[in-house]
Amino acid sequence: MNGLSGADLQCHRQSQEAQLSSTFRAFLSSPTQNLVSIVRRTDRALPVVNLKVSNKV
């Protein structure tokens, strides 16, 4: 994926293919990365979505 920027680019391309108009970024986690440094304060109330997984209950 070539790091976070490559993962973000892949998310962007997939969102365009799905004809979504919002901004999409990769959400990668690791034991050494703090979630606060990944998600901006203004975005913390937004949903995290995985378009490839169905969330049907």
From TrEMBL:
It holds the Pfam family Endostatin. Coiled coil: none annotated. InterPro entries: C-type_lectin-like/link_sf, Collagenase_NC10/endostatin, CTDL_fold. Residues 1-52 form the Collagenase NC10/endostatin domain. It comes from the Eukaryota. This is Kielin/chordin-like protein. It comes from Platysternon megacephalum.
